[in-house]
Design a protein that fits this description.
The complex is a heterodimer of chains A (about 450) and B (about 120). Chain A contains 20 helices and two strands. By secondary structure, chain A is mostly helical. Chain A is globular. Chain B is mainly alpha-helical. Helix content of chain B is about 75%, strand content about 0%. Chain B is built from four helices and no strands. In chain B, helix 1 packs antiparallel against helix 2 and helix 2 packs antiparallel against helix 3. Chain B is elongated, with a radius of gyration of 22 Å. Classes of the chains: A mainly alpha (about 450), B mainly alpha (about 120). The interface between A and B is large, with 38 and 40 residues. Chain B: It is found in: Cell membrane. Chain B: Belongs to the CPA3 antiporters (TC 2.A.63) subunit C family. Chain B: This is Na+/H+ antiporter subunit C.
């Protein structure tokens, strides 16, 4: 251990403290917005500095107040947590920069709320305690609830109301599931739950497992829990839609991976047929309805339902390959969605270019990040003889290519008024460039997927 | 005691779901408050003396599990904050639409969709 090692509490405490400071400042001023941007950038750097430690044999961890294990709250940064935290913080940073340079923030609380969302997400990804997961989850959700009404037109408020009521139900189910886990296993520490699950009869965990699937399903928005997504993504502001679809939906996929593959692998194995059916249903439903929509943002919302279906289907595959594909799909999808939502807001030639790159990645056309994640899913599906699923993945790619480019042909792009200028263009191009660069050199994405799931309870 | 608690949790949950499906925003908000409280009561019911005991307790001292009570307290605080936020949102929606009924909101939404649908070239 050198003196230069990044402490684990760095990326946790930094956004938390500065978001509280920002809450007292007027976010409409340029310097406050830049302070928020600097905070997120610093959080991103701190998280990146954790990478070498997370990949070492002993991922960094600490227990609050130096209590013994099982009494204190454990924070832990394994590769899965770090890659999710990196991608989510990067997405938040890009969106905040975009909103600021695109013409100014119109609400005094916006920078502070985005940084609080960042603090909540980092906390969710780094915690190793089920109830602490709930607390950070609620911190992120509360900031998102407040952000959903950003813009404050009647339309934004309708979106916010739908979003809050539906997600409150999800949070309540999650809380109930956490308490049931505690009552069953007698611990809130995830590592101890893994040990409990290996020693005892896992069928006792089926009810909390089902509740967790519903709760994260609401966040991620796959088939029976998707109903809020199109209305919210359509009526919330474009930047907020990018935040919700790009960063907040990561809680859903991370939670399913963490609780499903890590804490309760036996229950995940038990739920496999259900996950396959739900995944296939969301892929079909999202792709077909995306074709029928005229509003670009609704098309994108249905495309994100398809994406959620792919993640669920990947989770439903037995063995490590499916889980790796799920991680890669979630990470690539998060960047895709942000780039799409930001690019469709603008007109002109540059926005068209950025939009088409992100659309190619969503559909899985090489050389983009989306291609590799889908190729991985196809490989895993074919290796296990799920030809039907493989066919569905190809069908979904073709259909999303058609629906995203039908949206491309529409009126949006004729409007030359608000073209991407140098600042906003830089954000959207950076996101698109990241997708193409990952497509050309997929090693980091593939390795992130492989190593992230290597330490999970189910495969240990 | 557990029986009474579970009946009350079920009743609160059922009433909450029923109210969330109402057509008026204040009732929807109250419904979510009831739902949150049903889960808080569920947590508290877990710490009744019928099950479980605290960590490191000397024999002979009847102590219930304090962890669940601290969880309930945290959940109450979070639920309180979120309910306040939701009620603010109800107030703002009322000011923006001049109505608290969801069917009016749906009308406004359909009207907007219709208007933009008419106005698009191609």
């Amino acid at each position: 251990m050198t003196a230069m090692t990044m402490p684990l509490w760095g990326p946790l405490l930094l956004p938390w403290v500065l978001a509280s400071v920002l809450a007292f400042l007027d976010g409409r001023r340029a310097w406050v917005a830049w302070l928020g941007i600097a905070t997120l950038a610093a959080t991103l750097v701190c998280t990146a500095l954790l990478l070498p430690q997370a990949w070492s044999a002993h991922p960094p961890e600490f227990i609050t107040g130096d209590w013994p294990v099982g009494v204190g709250i454990r924070m832990r940064a394994d590769p899965l947590s770090v890659v999710y935290a990196l991608v989510s913080t990067a997405v938040l940073l890009g969106t905040l920069v975009y909103e600021h340079v695109a013409g100014g923030i119109t609400s005094r609380s916006f920078p502070s709320l985005v940084v609080f969302l960042g603090a909540g997400l980092t906390g969710v990804f780094f915690t190793s305690d089920a109830f602490n997961f709930y607390v950070f989850f609620e911190l992120a959700m509360t900031s998102a609830f407040a952000l959903a009404s950003y813009g404050e037109t009647a339309r934004n408020l309708r979106a916010a109301f739908t979003f809050v009521v539906v997600n409150l139900m999800g949070s309540m189910l999650f809380l109930t599931a956490v308490v049931m886990l505690y009552l069953t296993t007698g611990t809130l520490d995830m590592q101890s739950m893994v040990a409990w699950g290996q020693a005892q009869d896992p069928y006792a965990l089926v009810v909390p497992g089902t509740l967790l699937l519903c709760a994260f399903g609401v966040k991620l928005g796959f088939f029976p829990f998707h109903f809020w997504a199109p209305a919210v993504y359509r009526d919330a502001g474009p930047t907020v839609a990018a935040l919700l679809a790009g960063a907040l939906a990561n809680i859903g996929s991370y939670g399913l991976l963490r609780f499903g593959a890590d804490v309760m692998p036996q229950v995940l194995a038990y739920a496999r047929p259900l996950l396959e059916v739900l995944g296939a249903a969301s892929i079909l439903y999202g792709s077909v309805l995306a074709l029928s929509r005229r509003d670009t943002r609704e098309v994108l919302a249905y495309a994100s339902i398809t994406q959620a279906g792919l993640i669920i289907a990947a989770l439903g595959l037995a063995g490590g390959e499916g889980l790796c594909a799920a991680v890669a799909l979630a990470l690539a999808g998060s960047v895709d969605k942000t780039a799409l939502f930001l690019a469709q807001d603008r007109g002109g030639e540059r926005a068209r270019r950025a939009y088409s790159v992100a659309a190619f990645s969503t559909a899985g056309v090489p050389p983009t990040a989306g291609f590799w994640s889908k190729a991985w899913l196809l490989k895993a599906a074919l290796a296990q003889g799920h030809t039907l699923l493989a066919g569905l993945v190809v069908l979904a790619s073709v259909l999303s290519l058609i629906s995203l480019f039908r949206a491309y042909q529409r009126e949006q792009w004729l409007r030359q008024g608000a073209a991407l200028h140098r600042g906003t263009g830089a954000v959207v191009f950076a996101l698109s460039l990241a997708l193409v660069a990952t497509g050309l050199w997929p090693e980091p994405l593939l390795r992130a997927g492989r190593d992230a799931i290597a330490g999970l309870g189910g495969l240990r | 005691m557990i029986l009474i608690a579970s009946l009350v949790v079920g009743l609160l949950f059922a009433c909450g779901v029923r109210m969330v499906l109402e057509r008026e925003l204040v009732r929807v908000a109250c419904g979510t408050v009831l739902l949150t409280n049903s889960s808080v009561l569920l947590i508290l019911a877990g710490s009744f003396p019928e099950r479980g005991e605290a960590v490191n307790v000397q024999p002979g001292f009847p102590v219930t599990d304090p962890v669940l009570q601290s969880l309930a307290l945290t959940a109450i605080v979070i639920g309180f904050a979120v309910s306040a936020l939701l009620l603010t949102l109800v107030h703002r929606t009322q000011r923006a639409h001049g109505s608290l009924r969801t069917d009016r909101l749906v009308e406004a939404e359909l009207k907007r969709a219709h208007d933009t649908g008419e106005g698009t070239p191609g």
